C-alpha cells in the first residue's frame, strides 16, 4: 500500500475533489476545490481522471514524504515547492523516488496550491464525494484539515510515469483575474442606479476574515436595497450578498445554502477559479456581463479542456 506521510500540515491543507452537488436542500454545500480548474489540470497531468481527490493547500504549504515513491503534479499558485531541496515546477508531472520529501512554503502568488498524485488520495466518500466539508466535520480525511503524522493512502495507479506539462497558451488563458465578471443577482433591481454605479465603479479589498465559506470585502458600503428584510431563499455559489452593513460578501464553496440578504450580482462560473486564488488584502473590481456572454465564456473554458493540445506529453 502506497501512502503519503504528512510531516508538516501547512496552514490549511485538506482533501478535495470537485465537490458534492445536489444536497443543498439537505443543508450541505458542495465544498470541493476552491480552484477546481487547477485541481482538474493537476489530475490530468498526474494521469488521473479530472475529479480524483487531491490536496488543497492555502497560503502556506505542507511538507510530505513519499515512502514508496509517487508520480505527482502541482498546480495553482507558486508555493516555492522543492523535492529533496531541488525546485519543482508547477503544471508538470514529477516522479518522486521512495523516501523523497516534497516541501512547500508560503505562497508567492495566489491563495491555493494543489497536489495530485497518480492514483488519487483514497478516502471514504461522503455523499458521493471525497471533499472535506469543514463546517460539518465530514468527508476527506476524518472530516478535518491534515495534521502532522497523518498517513494518506494513495489509490491504485493506472499507468507508469509520463512527462506531461500544461500547454503554455492554455496557462495564459486560464490566468486568475482581479476584475471579476458578474451577472445581475436575483435582487439586483432592488438597488438604485446610484448604488449599482457605486458597486461596479468601486475597488474592494478582500478582508482577513474570508474563508472557504465566503469572501468578505472591504470598501464602499452599498447602503441601498433590502437588508435582512427579505424571505430566506436558496443561494448559489458566487452570489454577492449585501448585508446590513453594506459591505459585499461573495458566497464560496462552503457557503450556507440559504440566505436572507439581497444579492446584487453573481460571479460567473468561468471566474470561480479567480475567486479561489484571492488572498486577504487582494484588490478586486466587478464587471457586469450579460447571460449570453457568461455562457459563452464557460463554453470556451470547457472547449479548452476538451482540446487534445491542453496537455503536452513528451
- Beta content comes to 25-35%
Series of H and E elements = EEHEEEEEEEEEEHEHEEEEEEEHEHE
Going by helix content, strand content and strand pairing, the class is: alpha+beta
**Approximately how much helix is present in the residues?**
10-25%
**Low-confidence runs of at least 5 consecutive residues:** none
Tell me how many strands there are: 22
Continuous helix count:
5
Strand order of the largest sheet: 13-20-17-18-15-14-21
Largest sheet: 7 strands, mixed, barrel
Specify Rg, calculated over alpha carbons.
Answer: 20 Å
What's the average pLDDT?
A: 94
First-residue to last-residue Cα separation? 29 Å
- Taken from the alpha-carbon principal axes, the silhouette is globular
Number of domains: 2
Protein described:
The protein is α+β, with helices and mostly antiparallel strands. It has two domains: about 5-165, no CATH class; about 180-305, Cyclophilin, CATH 2.40.100. Helix content is about 15%, strand content about 30%. It contains five helices and 22 strands. The strands form five sheets. Strands 13-20-17-18-15-14-21 form a seven-stranded mixed β-barrel. The chain has a six-stranded antiparallel β-sheet with strand order 7-6-9-4-1-11, with no helix packed on it. β6 (about 80-85) and β7 (about 85) form a beta hairpin. The longest helix has 16 residues, at about 290-305. The chain is globular and about 60 Å long. The model has no long low-confidence stretch (mean pLDDT about 95).
